[in-house]
């Protein structure tokens, strides 16, 4: 663990040991996780990751184009299973 001090204007100096992953001018997303840790994420790296995965599911015929519909369909199936309802009519 590396210790840093909050400076005037709520600035933090990134320790030299951690600077290899950053460039001057990088835009960072800052968040605090549930444990209270400050998390810095490179906006550029997040966008690059999302770009690599964009369209991954576009050719799937079994998935609706609307992700909300898909998730609702999954949830509906889980609710039916938990309640003991089957999709097939009794013969």
Question: Overview of this structure, please?
Answer:
This protein is α+β, with helices and mostly antiparallel strands and 91 residues long. The chain has a domain at 59-83. 31% of the residues lie in helices and 11% in strands. The protein contains two helices and two strands, in the order E-E-H-H. It has helices spanning 43-53, 67-83, and strands at 28-32, 38-42. It has a two-stranded antiparallel ribbon. A hairpin with a 5-residue loop joins strand 1 (28-32) and strand 2 (38-42). The longest helix is centred in the last third of the chain and has 17 residues, at 67-83. It is elongated.
Strand content: 5-15%
Question: How would you characterize the largest beta sheet?
Answer: 2 strands, antiparallel
- Span from first to last CA? 65 Å
Radius of gyration: 23 Å
Side by side, the strands of the main sheet go 1-2
* Number of E-state strands: 2
Structural class based on helices, strands and sheet pairing: alpha+beta
Q: Could you estimate the helical fraction of the residues in percent?
A: 25-40%
Query: How many individual helices?
Result: 2
Shape: elongated
Low-confidence stretches: none
- Mean pLDDT, to the nearest integer, reads 80
Order of helices and strands: EEHH
Task: Looking at this protein, list some descriptive labels.
91 residues, alpha+beta, two-stranded antiparallel sheet, 2 helices, elongated
């Amino acid at each position: 663990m590396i210790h840093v001090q909050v400076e005037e204007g709520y600035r933090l100096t990134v320790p030299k040991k951690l600077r290899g992953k950053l460039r001057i001018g990088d835009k960072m997303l800052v968040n605090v996780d549930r444990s209270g840790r400050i998390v810095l994420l490179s906006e550029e790296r997040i966008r690059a990751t999302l770009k690599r995965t964009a369209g991954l599911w576009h050719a799937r015929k079994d998935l609706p184009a609307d992700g909300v519909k898909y998730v609702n369909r999954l949830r509906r199936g889980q609710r039916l299973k938990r309640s003991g309802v089957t999709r097939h009519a009794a013969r």
